[in-house]
């Protein structure tokens, strides 16, 4: 059966580790695996803006011997004239995989149901699982083993990044904490899913409202924009509500002295993070951005190898 990657818990712990191992291998030897030689085409569809995702998929597909077909939804029939399901039926006859950045997770599910080629979530309103593969690769590079580490994500807990942190880190056997205002807590079902996974992997998933309590003694501190794509109209209210969650040097001082700082980017310096933290010695954001390339190549190779 075709495997898709729509949310972080589509992978078991062993599968996640296998992909991270492969990513590390591909980072060491970039052009060693070429499953898309031909070249075969991979469709990469964007309903929302992107720099990192667009570049890393385009470069990664080319590295694997393939040809990326970048589609802006606004110029395609997917913008309103055609369903995800019909689009999937058309694409599967011509491409090796479909990568899609969109709004509702249900659109991705519909696309995946309608096609025999792997569908990859390149960010939805609910999850950003490709980013989490890159983040886990980065943490592993800097800290070795993932299992047992404690990570705190601060900000919009209901966002794609907050929810993906819960599922991906629980899968990796990490202790994941979300620090968010009560009205921006992650979805209750996602929290339950993460806790169920954590009970099997030896990790944990805990929701906090107090940022200081949430970062106390942790190994990794993570944040993301307070205003995700599609939420721009809410900016003023969000900036007010999230004010106390800025990751600055005072907050970082409550984490371990060598704690890592991660941010998926793009960043709003002076809002979710101060410039001295994001541009400071604990920040690994440029490794994290580069690792999108290696992690997604590994994901593609792995998905294409599945029977
Ligand atoms: N982090 C991330 O997904 O960046 P882009 O929006 O630039 O793709
Ligand atoms: N949460 C952000 C991530 C951007 C990569 C957004 O959805 O806009």
Automatic annotation (TrEMBL):
Keyword hit for Cytoplasm: yes
Aspartate/ornithine carbamoyltransferase Asp/Orn-binding domain location: 148-303
Annotated localization: Cytoplasm
Domain Aspartate/ornithine carbamoyltransferase carbamoyl-P binding: 3-141
UniProt EC number: 2.1.3.3
Keyword Cell inner membrane: no
Pfam families, A to Z: OTCace, OTCace_N
Biological processes per GO annotation: citrulline biosynthetic process; L-arginine biosynthetic process via ornithine
UniProtKB keywords: Cytoplasm, Transferase
One GO cellular component term: cytoplasm
Biological pathway: Amino-acid biosynthesis; L-arginine biosynthesis; L-arginine from L-ornithine and carbamoyl phosphate: step 1/3
Catalytic activity, as annotated: carbamoyl phosphate + L-ornithine = L-citrulline + phosphate + H(+)
Binding site for carbamoyl phosphate: 50-53, 77, 101, 128-131, 264-265, 292
Organism domain of life: Bacteria
Binding site for L-ornithine: 160, 224, 228-229
Similarity remark: Belongs to the aspartate/ornithine carbamoyltransferase superfamily. OTCase family.
Protein name according to UniProt: Ornithine carbamoyltransferase
